[in-house]
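Quick one:
INPUT:
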């Protein structure tokens, strides 16, 4: 894989092995090249960020200072905050089984933040709901450079090192030493409550499991990893057309998409349309990664239409005609 330009941007989601990764990154890059942003009151927050962003409220100046000096940026911050300064391909995060993440988050708050309420009250508080999903804040998940899995931390770290041509070593810190097993045991009622209040986190985690295998295959075989997804369109257009995006971060050429019905190819389209979200989130090609396709009238209702990446033959999206 092609090495990334610095800085790397690690989105540290609470209780997903982020502390181990950030400390290991500091040892690799050196303290002077690692910038932290954990808010204006945190001792870890870089002085330049505290002064320029939080005191002078000049995020542009803070961002330019990061680009100038940092090789690694991290904090409990969402992706859009620094997206204008750092390409999405350089963004890294870890996600975790929401059941374990929520319980671990609660235990952390009781130990380190003097949280006195019950676990049920914790789960019901809005600020603790879908915290993993909130870290993306409108960025298409597939645009993030690498999404690791806490449960497969060492494997994730090896893939990160290969993808970005770095050599961060594994560490194991900030764990609950009072926990007797590797995972928390919760009652059926507690699990049901977590599922009720963290639906977006569960969707994200299921997506990340599939995405991990796709990206692992691409990294290990040194083949293109095509990122893709649907984009917003009018409800009245559903079943009549599709709008989406696709990008290959290792190429400045648009991804070419083969459109097929069954085994028959009916069109070939480039993902080269402008998408404002892609531009705002610094995803690729200044936002020119979109595609749209209106379904031919000769196709019958219920017929399936498939969209493949021409370069790899990978099935990206499927839809069905429904006028």
């Amino acid at each position: 894989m092609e090495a990334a330009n610095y800085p790397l941007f690690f989105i540290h989601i609470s209780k997903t092995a982020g502390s181990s990764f950030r400390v290991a990154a500091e040892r690799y890059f050196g303290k002077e090249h690692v910038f932290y942003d954990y808010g204006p009151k945190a001792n870890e927050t870089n002085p330049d960020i505290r002064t320029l962003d939080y005191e002078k409220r000049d995020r542009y100046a803070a961002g330019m200072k990061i680009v100038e000096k940092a090789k690694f940026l991290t904090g409990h911050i969402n992706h859009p905050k620094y997206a204008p300064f750092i390409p999405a391909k350089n963004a890294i995060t870890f996600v975790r089984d929401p059941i374990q993440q929520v319980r671990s988050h609660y235990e952390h708050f009781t130990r380190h933040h003097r949280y006195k309420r019950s676990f049920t009250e914790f789960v019901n508080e809005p600020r603790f709901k879908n915290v993993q999903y909130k870290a993306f804040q409108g960025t298409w998940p597939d645009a993030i450079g690498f999404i690791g899995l806490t449960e497969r931390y060492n494997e994730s770290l090896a893939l990160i090192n290969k993808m970005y041509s770095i050599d961060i070593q594994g560490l194991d810190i900030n764990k609950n030493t009072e926990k007797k097993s590797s995972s928390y045991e919760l009652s059926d009622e507690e699990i049901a409550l977590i599922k009720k209040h963290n639906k977006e986190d569960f969707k994200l985690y299921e997506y990340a499991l599939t995405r991990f295998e796709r990206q692992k295959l691409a990294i290990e075989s040194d083949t293109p990893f095509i990122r893709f997804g649907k984009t917003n369109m009018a409800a009245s257009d559903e079943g009549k057309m599709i709008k989406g995006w696709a990008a290959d971060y290792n190429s400045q050429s648009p991804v070419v998409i083969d459109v097929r019905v069954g085994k028959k190819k009916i069109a070939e389209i480039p993902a080269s349309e402008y998408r404002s979200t892609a531009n705002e989130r610094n995803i690729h090609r200044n936002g020119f990664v979109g595609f749209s396709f209106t379904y031919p009238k000769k196709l019958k209702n219920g017929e399936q239409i498939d969209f493949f990446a021409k370069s790899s033959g990978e099935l990206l999206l499927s839809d069905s005609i429904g006028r």
